[in-house]
Amino acid sequence: MTALAESLLKQVDAGLAFFYPETCQICRMERATAGDGYVCSHCRSQVHFIKPPFCERCGLPYSGDFTTPFECTNCREMELHFNSARSAVVAHNVVREAIHRYKYQRALWFEPFLADLLLSAVLPTLREQSWDFIVPVPLHPLKHREREFNQAERLATYLGAATGVPLNLKLLRRIRPTATQTRLTRQQRAANMRAAFAVCPRARLDGERIILVDDVFTTGATTSACAQVLKAAGAGEVCVWTVARGL
Ligand SMILES: [Zn+2]
Ligand SMILES: [Zn+2]
Questions:
Q1: Which of 22, 45, 79, 174 is 20–30 Å from 203 (CA)?
Q2: What is the phi/psi pair of residue 109, to 5°?
Q3: Dihedral sign from CA coordinates of 32, 33, 36, 39
Q4: Nearest-ligand number for the alpha carbon of 84
Q5: Distance (Å, whole) CA 114 – CA 245
Q6: Ligand at shortest distance from the CA of 110
Q7: Rg of the Cα trace of the chain?
Q8: Over the stretch 132-159, which tens digit does the pLDDT of each residue have?
Q9: Which residues does residue 199 pair with via DSSP β-bridges, in sequence order?
Q10: What is the Å distance from ligand 2's center to 69 Cα?
Q11: Could you give the CA distance from residue 62 to residue 55 in angstroms, rounded to a whole number?
C-alpha cells in the first residue's frame, strides 16, 4: 500500500478510535479496531472472495465443469458496454450489511474494511496493466448533498492512492436523478439508466483506458450506462471494478 493510502487509513483510524470502543460493528462480540473497519477476523472469514471461473465479460462467477463454452445469463439478457467487470467479493451477509450501513446510515467506520476488500482483489490484477484514469460512478448532485458523500468516489480514492492511477472526478456526471433500483426488473433498470449520465462537454478523450469504480455491481445497468457515454466520448477501454457483486 502506498504512503497516501496508509495516511488515509490512519486519518480514519485516528478520527474514530476516539469515539468508538474496539468492538466489531457486525457481530458486536469480537474485538476489532478502527483500522480493521470495525469488522473482526471471524466476520471477515465469512467474506466470499470471487475467484475463477467467472464470466470473462461481466465477472459473474459460476460453479461446476463446463464442457461447452459458458454462456452467462446476465450477459445474454443485457447489452453491456464495458469491456469487462470484476468484483472483489460476493455481496452477502457481512459485506451486504457493511455496505448498506455505510451508504444509507453513514456508517463510515466500515470504509477501511470495504476499501481493503477492493484493494486486495484489484492490486494483483492491475499491477500488470496500464490505465489512464480512475472514474467513480457519480451521484446526482441532489443525492450527493443528501448523502453527503459518494461511496464510489471514496472507494476510488483508495484505489487511486494505492495504484498511482489518477482519479478523474470531472469527466463523468449524473445529469438525471434515478429512482432506487432495487425493486426494478433488469429491463426497467437499463431504461432508467440510459439517459442518466453524460461526459463533461469540454472533455477530449482519445482512446484512454479507464477504470470505472462503484461499490456494488448488480445487473451492470449503471456501470454499462457510464461505459456507454465514456466510449461515445472517445474512451478506448472501460473496465469496471466494484467491491461487491450481487448474485
Ligand atoms: Zn465480528
Ligand atoms: Zn456475463
A1: 79
A2: -65, -15
A3: positive
A4: 2
A5: 13
A6: 1
A7: 18
A8: 999 999 999 988 888 889 999 999 999 9
A9: 172
A10: 12
A11: 8
